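Help wanted!
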Amino acid sequence: MAPGAPAASGDAKQPPPPLVPSATSAERLALAKQHGLRPLNVRPPLGEYIRDLTKRWAFTRVLATSTAYAKNQNNYLGQLWAVLNPILNAAVYVLIFGVVLQLSRDMDNSIAFIVIGVFMYRFIEASVTGGAKSISGKTQLLRSLHFPRAVLPMSTVLSLLTTLIPAIVVMCAITLLSGFLPTYEMIHVTWWWLLLPAAVVLMWIFNTGLAFIMARLVATTPDLENVLPFIMRVVMYASGVIFPVAAKVNELQIAEPAKTILTGVLDYQPVAVYLYLVRSILMQEEQFPPSGLMWALGGAWAVLFFVIGFIVFWRGEERYGRD
Amino acid sequence: MTEADDHMDFDLEVEPEDAGEEALETDLGTPCLVVDDLHVVYRVIGGRAKKEAEKQGAEIHEVKVKVPFFKRLLQAGRRHVGAVSEIHAVRGVSFTVRHGESVGIVGVNGSGKSTMLRAIAGLLPPRSGTVHVSGEPSLLGVNAALMPALTGERNIMIGGLALGLTPKQVDERFDEVVEFAGIGDFVYLPMKTYSSGMGARLRFAISSSASPDILMIDEALATGDAAFKERSKARIEQVREDAGTVFLVSHSISTIEAMCTRVLWMHQGQLVMDGPVREVAEAYKNFVRAQRPGRPSMSPARRRAHLRKKAREEAEQKAAAEAEAKKAADARA
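Answered by r_m:
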């Protein structure tokens, strides 16, 4: 270029005006149709979605176990924390509610009562809070890779299940050992204990349904995440996690029919049902006799929440990752 | 003054090894991607965008007006509570791409290139408009979120499964991915211990391990050394040969010139030019050159001459001042 020649003409400062497309919208759509192109960002039909999802089962599983493993990777004690964490948790609750406040003194074995309640409730609570973050906290991943979004809440709960397994071993050990304390009722290992995995599987299905619902809600309204801890605390006290709540209802100054309704709701809502199931399996407490009704309810709640949750989640599929 | 010299003077990243290279033309096939009147709107929660900020390049003026205390309080509240603003990042883009085309997307920062790429990859739901594709588009991003606390080995598995491979297929391709990324035994260490280049190379290697029908690359080639760049270029050529289509967003105009046959130029969320690489790249270069602040109408050669002259004058002035000072000192002595 010769010195002095204008490098750029005046109009180069401005970009060209926006292009006017050479074809109309209808022509383009016809072209797409003619060559059998598939529209993107359209929610797949439910059947196809389920097929896609089952194909990604390996992904769900690996993502879940990796997340569970990565959680304890930054510590010196590493994976030992998967066991230490629940032990410390149980110790705190037993100390405060069992020893200091004596809230469950009606029980023959209050330690077993509290430990089972706390461990099982933590699984539900963590599924709700984890499910809530499973979409809203992974925008980066959603905008990088293409897969059925239902993988994320599912793997969140699956990951919690893998961390629950060592916790359940701890829970059973504490329950058994508590029987040797002088004032506590002895606890025996019975054939009933074999039913524990079944109860955990029901909870897993129920929790996955909850996580689906929470994922959709928080993805559309992020503010809900701030309210969740409070709701979960209310549910904890209302479900008899630490002390039997039905006894407290009887002390209330309300009309008799209202009492019956309230007790019914509190006893048969899903969280209470699952706690009942696990306690009836592990403890030989008179208040928790084995109950077919409770098992039926446990199954019904699990299926109901899972199906409704899955459909609720699927209906938002094409919108996840927008913001 | 040679043409090559002129190129070196751009405010763009220029890779010497790319200069002079050109992508091979291949026969065009049937349409494989149809984009119709695409609009993408970001909803930003927790910030109120200034109206002007949406228009790139427009200056934002802070005007001080006396506002009554109570009103000011209300306005402050509105900025921090319930603040939701929308950014219209892509505003009505339409185009058709055929099998075997490699399309570069250029534009200044914030012109909506990356957003559009994500939208046509089906990763960012658009506000309106449609995208039709044949096959599965796949975006190679340097941002793809893998798990930093886990080893590269584990991440290869996660990434491969996320792309839709089976565990067996991932195992089969494992060695290939490691070799392509060139990270050697680091693959058995957590990814957080990697240098940023190693991490980016591994992510590129993972995301290109499944051969997609439409490959989309966002700035991925900006990382890595010359050898890696050579390998990734070969990989992209391979996808094109398999009758696939390649999209490339890059800030480096020379990379685009070397790898693409067609270029889309985006500005403020709209398509302003769409054509063969030579034509659009030339126009875009002129535009960028004209944007350089402070020296609008001066050619690079003339500017250098000007700078030389200025430097000479300054040196003369300095010498004169020194001589003056010396003279004064001598006089005092």
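OP: Thanks! One thing I noticed: Residues 300-332 of chain B form the longest helix (33 residues).
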